[in-house]
Amino acid sequence: MVELSTSALDSVFHALSDGTRRAILRDLLVEGKSVGELAKPYEMSLAAVSKHVQVLERAELVERQRRGQFQIVRLKPKSLRAAQDWLAFYETFWTARLDALQTHLEQADEPAQKGHPDAST
């Protein structure tokens, strides 16, 4: 499992906890955009979008680069990958637990089906 400091991982999950910030990350998948371009789909000020971008920057999910008079925001997937790896570690646990539950339920259902008059033998 990839190790990421607790505070860094907390920052990533905090950043991902907001739907607008998740949408901003999705908007940056193909290419970098200015804050103005990121703000267009939302009914909020440039300052509000900029605050969302700051949260994403603190989590190291995006970076800003100055291009002339514009600040271009680009995706930095490394921290996102670390969060995915952290989740994947626990996914293994839950998958095993759910598989065990499914097996248990199927086994519990077999005797009931065998005793049912409509069950085929």
Characterise the protein shown here:
The protein is mainly alpha-helical and 121 residues long. It has a single domain (1-113), classed as Arc Repressor Mutant, subunit A, CATH 1.10.10. It contains five helices and three strands; from the N terminus they run H-H-E-H-H-E-E-H. It has a three-stranded antiparallel β-sheet with strand order 1-3-2. Helix 1 (6-16) runs antiparallel to helix 4 (46-58).
Oligomer: single chain
* CATH homologous superfamily classification: Winged helix-like DNA-binding domain superfamily/Winged helix DNA-binding domain
- The total count of helices amounts to 5
What's the structural domain tally? 1
CATH architecture descriptor: Orthogonal Bundle
Largest sheet strand order: 1-3-2
Strand proportion: 5-15%
Helix content: 55-70%
Distance between the termini: 48 Å
Looking at the structure, the CATH topology is Arc Repressor Mutant, subunit A
What would the keywords be for this entry?
3 strands, 5 helices, Arc Repressor Mutant, subunit A, about 120 residues
